Automatic annotation (TrEMBL):
Pfam families: SDR (PF23441). This is Short chain dehydrogenase. Keywords: NADP, Oxidoreductase. The keyword Nucleus does not apply. One of its GO terms (molecular function) is oxidoreductase activity. It comes from Trichoderma simmonsii. Transmembrane segments: none annotated. SUPFAM superfamilies: NAD(P)-binding Rossmann-fold domains. Belongs to the short-chain dehydrogenases/reductases (SDR) family. Gene3D superfamilies: NAD(P)-binding Rossmann-like Domain.
Length: 264
């Protein structure tokens, strides 16, 4: 270790609870936390998926086996507050909470909207973060080095036809983090808005199928790439490490909001 090292040590020993950590962006954040010397505690709705992800992390980082743990917590549970207290009591106080959990998307045409379905569409992505904040803030170590980071979506900047409900909930996160940054100060609260990223969210696809999807997506971006989870994860690692960033929306979107589709 370099004597003057001050950047790569910012997460050393930090405890990070990741909702949605069993796959995709959340799992990539867990990898980053471990590489920076922190402790990753991952959670999702299914214990088998959590166990698989924990094993994957332990085999990837054999020298950091004690830095990985995980437990299931279904964010759709009718007793969510109790489940969250159990989760935090089991794993103890944390320095950061990362929220990347997301269930399947609800994309009906306007005439097919119903109030119940609209509310259901927000349960994991909008209502659960509020309850996670209520409970999780009781287990967050005090001070400006601690943080909560939620997930929105780049489409808040350029809505697509048929995505109104999803866009509304993702946009609400922008106001929420500003308000919570005030309510929870000096702890910090931010949101990351990703664009299309190659994760399990795209379903059970082969590499070849993902490549084909990626080629189409890349035409809508400035960088010409279909993002990798390990790049998007940088945004969450940043919000944890920069003790100045709070009430902020961080975009990681391949330039999609600025791009117009390239010629076929
Ligand atoms: N990938 C993209 O292209 C993209 C683009 C823009 C925004 N986003 C947003 O970024 C976030 C992360 O996406 P991702 O690509 O990493 O998706 P992902 O790989 O599908 O991961 C979603 C995570 O959420 C968990 N989850 C789902 N339902 C849950 C529930 N009821 N309770 C607890 N955990 C639950 C899943 O685990 P279990 O199934 O085990 O519960 C999984 O760990 C999502 O909010 C997504 O909408 C993604």
């Amino acid at each position: 270790m370099l004597a003057q090292e001050k950047y790569v040590s910012k997460l050393r020993g930090h405890r990070v609870l990741i909702f949605g950590g069993s796959s995709g962006v959340g799992l990539a954040v867990a990898e980053g936390v471990i590489e920076f010397g922190g402790h990753a505690i991952i959670s999702s709705s299914q214990q088998s998926r959590v166990d698989q992800a924990v094993e994957r992390l332990k085999s990837r980082y054999p020298n950091a086996k004690s830095s990985v743990a995980g437990s299931a917590c279904n964010l759709l549970s009718p007793n969510l507050e109790n489940s969250l207290h159990e989760l935090f009591k089991k794993h103890g106080k944390v320095d950061h909470i990362i929220f990347t959990a997301g269930d399947s998307l609800y994309l009906p045409s306007i005439q097919d909207w119903s109030l119940d379905a609209i509310i259901d569409a927000g349960r994991v992505r909008f209502f659960a973060p509020l309850i996670v904040t209520k409970v999780g803030s009781q287990y967050l170590n005090p001070g400006p080095r601690s943080s909560i980071t939620f997930t929105g979506a780049a489409l808040t900047q350029k809505p697509r036809p048929g995505w109104a409900v999803t866009t509304a909930y993702a946009s609400a996160m922008h106001g929420l983090v500003k308000a919570l940054a005030i309510d929870l100060k000096p702890a910090r609260v931010n949101v990351v808005d990703p664009f299309a990223t190659r994760t399990e969210m795209w379903g059970d696809k082969t590499e070849a199928e993902l490549e084909e999807i990626g080629k189409d997506i890349a035409k809508d971006t400035l960088t010409g790439i279909f993002a990798y989870a390990e790049d998007v994860a940088e945004a969450y690692l940043y919000t944890m490490k920069d003790a100045n960033v709070t009430g902020t929306v961080i975009g990681t979107n391949s330039g999609w909001p600025l791009a117009s589709r390239s010629a076929e």
